[in-house]
Amino acid sequence: MAYQLIDGKATATAIKAEIAEAVRLLVAGGGKQPHLAAVLVGHDGGSETYVRNKVIACEQCGFKSTLIRFEADVTEAELLACVDKLNRDEDVDGFIVQLPLPVHIDEQKVIMAIDYRKDVDGFHPVNVGRMAIGLPCFISATPLGILTLLNHYHIATSGKKCVVLGRSNIVGKPMAQLMMQKHYGDATVTVCHSHSANLKEECRQADIIIAAIGKPDFVTADMVKDGAVVIDVGTTRVADATRKSGFRLNGDVKFDEVAPKCSFITPVPGGVGPMTICSLMKNTLAAGRHEYYQ
Length: 294
Ligand code: GUN
Hints:
Layout: E1 4-5, H1 8-28, E2 35-41, H2 45-61, E3 64-70, H3 76-88, E4 94-97, H4 107-113, H5 125-132, H6 141-152, E5 161-165, H7 172-180, E6 188-192, H8 199-204, E7 208-211, E8 228-232, E9 236-239, E10 247-250, H9 255-258, E11 262-265, H10 272-288
């Protein structure tokens, strides 16, 4: 079957151009330039890359950005003090604390300390709860990016069977919630995870598979029905001596054998990744405009 590749990079570029135009109009009308702050703890290679790309995206969108760095031995109290300062900084419209945090810091405590009105990651329980009952809120960037991609490619989801692989707070859980909701996916959703007994059978029945389990090449051709839509959220770093960096990003889907069975599939890299950052930019614009909260 001839499959169509879902180009997340091009879609994100187009949406960032729309955001930049909206910012231009906002500022021309006397409004304030949206300002995103990012807090980065330690020197995790993946986190460094993500945060760098977020700062670049801010420039592309015409936002102001501030990067705040701490060494990995920062205390929880110091980090909470930084969150408190950003909560009170009137120039900062939204901010994120890049995860994961070092093990000596309680991640949930840090997330809870963020003012939900500035929580452009959509991780605070107020935003998670509002999302779950369909109220306006900041929606977690990766699930929002996937919904945007499905929409952009006119992929029908209403009434379809969707299998979400993975149950993380950042992707699996919000993705399943949104795919189920009438005004978003409107699909019949099954969540599978590391302890699901019949994961392969569930996948074989799916019209849409969203793989977010962080296991490279986990989804194989025998798990995918002909004509399925496959969204790959995986970005595991695997050693690759042919690359200058020494590694490559590997998705959760065994692309070469799965793609021929699909109607649509996302590549890694260039699929979901760029859309995640683009969604963060959308949320930052919404924060700057006070779209959800005063
Ligand atoms: N770590 C992995 N994904 C994300 C994200 O979307 N936001 C933050 N803050 N940390 C992450």
